[in-house]
Design goal:
With about 625 residues, this protein is of the alpha+beta class. About 40% of the residues lie in helices and about 20% in strands. The strands form five sheets. A seven-stranded antiparallel β-sheet has the order 1-11-3-2-6-5-4, covered by helices on one side.
């Protein structure tokens, strides 16, 4: 496996700086962060490479047992991580394993808190993400939830624009750290190979920006004849450029979660801490799960908005294009242009047809140079729509603002004009003016304001798509059969079919969340019975462990802990399956609901004293009342 899109990596004799950091081979650093250890096995289970500190973490006997437990194999690539709890020399550890290039790579970390007790919080955040109506709401709920899970000082949602620049659109922070809300970071802050790694692996942790990395030995993997690819390693050491970047921000530890929509990295949830900090593996997994759900929710909302917008706009365009077939025809005076102006958000619509010029609205004042820019763009190609945010890039001395032009073959062109706006953008770290280029990460992250004048708001992909649909429709209707094979009526028919298809797609998308809830309910229900059996027999087994070896009792504790975690997960899945269900309010017997809750939690409450007083009849949704009471009792027990 390799990182695509990188033509040439830095040679060993080249020094690293900001002018070439996008060629740093960060996936093969040859070292790990020192809060753990690493071992590499071949397909036969033979140790072939290790971190220099491995013997400080595990001995050869435990290594052999781990490899036997995880199993051998020669799969070339499997990024799915397996994990198992360990105890060695009085320390709780976790072994994290994955496969790459036919090798099994096992990493060891401390696991002081090997129980994950925040399932109820996780379910609550999932519910909030599932009910959020806009991407900004999704990110706002996500940063709050991840701040609680990670314990970091600052958690921010950092979203990329089309040029790769990042903007902070949501933030959760403690009162004593600087806010980055609203700041914009240049795309060069995250080199392309780093973005590729973020797209491959959902999470990345830097425990201590000042820590000294631990080398691998031997430096080259003897089976591969090259450095080990550590793209999926949790402990992979960090680029010195990035470490300096963090230190300049006053950040000692960081943790990131990728936001991936339709297979593309669109942003990061970035967590910062002012002191060295280790986030246990179980919590990192929980954060990854949140990141995956967050990405799916954003993708779903984007798809809904895009399809609803297309449906509405195309439906309007079909009717307006039909009107153009009437007696008015394709003339600059056609009354339909006033409505076509609204297809795209703009200050005015310019119509230049058969050497006649019209501006909609008619009282809009327009400089003569705008017509010249429109003519130049239309003549550059009749097969494409063209857009600019700064007309001075087309003609020196042109008016300020931007233009989106639709060529009309043999007749002229249409153009949406946007007036210029002063874009006030918050930046992070003002660049130094003049002087020699600084080849280290900038040291100032104080907010500064950058004013961009003379440009209009950017034309969106949706704006250009709308213009292109109009261009095709006009060409089909008025090209006199020169190029287009379809008649205008056929184009309208295709458009109407597309509207119908979009409406069906919207209905299908609306059922996605319901399908997910049904799956969660089925999963919860299916493993409730076997889990109840396991939890019932564990106390019986425990009675016979008084004379058992210490190691056996330790194993029992791991099994018991895992069973309790599964029990909480099962309850969490059940609760999630009830989120946002369309149920009617009815009169419910609160006493009966409490009785059911206590019965379902009997195993948890066997040593507790429970007293139930008189309960009233209430008006509500019985299933949701049961969920609330279950969570209250579980939290109190």
């Amino acid at each position: 496996m390799s990182l695509r899109g990188i033509d040439t990596w830095l040679r060993p004799d080249e020094s690293l700086g900001l002018n070439n950091c996008d060629r740093e081979a960060i996936h093969v650093p040859g070292s790990i962060q020192p809060h753990g250890a690493l071992a590499v096995f071949d397909s036969q289970g033979t140790l072939v490479q290790q971190s220099e500190n491995l013997s400080e973490w595990v001995d050869s006997e435990l290594l052999a047992a781990i490899e036997e437990e995880l199993g051998n194999g020669a799969e070339d690539f499997d990024a799915r991580r397996e994990s198992m709890p360990l105890e060695y020399d009085g320390r709780r550890l976790v072994a994290i394993s994955h496969r790459l290039d036919g090798l099994r790579i096992v990493e060891f970390e401390r696991d002081e808190n090997n129980r994950f007790d925040s399932v109820s919080s996780l379910v609550q955040v999932f519910a909030e993400l599932s009910s959020a109506k806009t991407p900004v709401d999704v990110f706002s709920h996500a940063v709050d939830g991840i701040a609680e899970l990670s314990g970091c000082d600052r958690v921010m949602a950092y979203i990329f624009d089309a040029d790769g620049n990042g903007s902070v659109i949501a933030e959760s922070r403690t009162a004593d750290v600087q806010s980055f809300m609203g700041l914009r970071f240049p795309g060069t802050d995250i080199p392309k190979q780093a973005r590729r790694l973020y797209a491959l692996d959902w999470t990345r942790q830097v425990v201590d920006a000042d820590a000294k990395p631990v080398p691998l030995t031997p430096s080259e993997n003897p089976l591969l004849g090259r450095p080990l690819n550590m793209a999926f390693c949790q402990l992979r050491s960090v680029s010195p450029i990035h470490l300096e970047y963090l230190r300049n921000m006053g950040v000692a530890a960081s943790f990131s979660i990728s936001v991936i929509v339709e297979g593309e990295l669109v942003g990061l949830i970035a967590c910062h801490h002012s002191e060295p900090k280790t986030i246990p593996f179980a919590r990192r997994q929980a954060c990854e799960l949140l990141g995956r759900h967050l990405s799916q929710r954003v993708e779903y909302l984007n798809a809904v908005v895009e399809r609803e917008t297309k449906t509405r706009r195309i439906g309007t365009q079909v009717e307006l294009l039909s009107r153009l077939t009437g007696t008015e025809g394709l003339t600059a005076q056609n009354s339909a242009w006033s409505e076509i102006r609204g297809f795209v958000e703009a200050s005015a619509l310019l119509v230049f047809l058969n050497n006649e010029r019209v501006v909609v609205p008619s009282d809009f004042s327009l400089e003569e140079s705008v017509w010249g820019v429109g003519q130049t763009l239309a003549e550059s190609s009749s097969e494409l729509c063209h857009s600019v945010t700064d007309m001075k890039t087309v003609h020196d001395g042109a008016a300020e603002g931007g233009l989106l032009v639709v060529p009309v073959v043999g007749a002229g062109w249409l153009g949406w004009y946007r007036e210029p706006v002063d874009l006030m953008v918050l930046g992070a770290g003002k660049p130094e003016a003049g002087g020699e280029k600084d080849l280290s990460p900038r040291k100032s992250f104080d907010a500064y304001r950058e004013v961009m004048r003379g440009l209009c708001e950017s034309w969106s992909i949706e704006d250009v798509n709308v213009a292109e649909i109009l261009r095709r429709g006009l060409r089909a209707r008025f090209s006199a059969g020169e190029v287009e094979a379809d008649s205008f009526e056929q184009v309208l028919g295709h458009m109407r079919e597309y509207v119908s298809l979009l409406e069906d797609t919207n209905r299908n998308l609306s059922s996605v969340n319901e399908d997910l809830r049904q799956f969660a309910y089925a999963a919860s229900h299916d493993f409730k019975a076997p889990l109840r059996t396991i939890r019932s027999f564990l106390p019986l087994i425990q009675r016979d462990l008084d004379e058992a070896p210490e190691r056996t009792r330790s194993w029992f504790e791991y099994v018991n802990t895992a069973a309790e975690s599964l029990h909480r997960l099962q309850n969490g899945l059940w609760a999630f399956s009830r989120v946002n269900r369309d149920t009617d309010f009815t009169t419910a017997d609160l006493g009966e609901i409490v009785k059911r809750v206590l019965g379902s939690l009997a195993a948890d409450l066997r040593d507790a004293k429970t007293t139930v007083g008189a309960m009233p009849q209430v008006h509500g949704v019985p299933e949701q009342l049961e969920t609330v009471l279950r969570n209250l009792v579980e939290n109190a027990s």
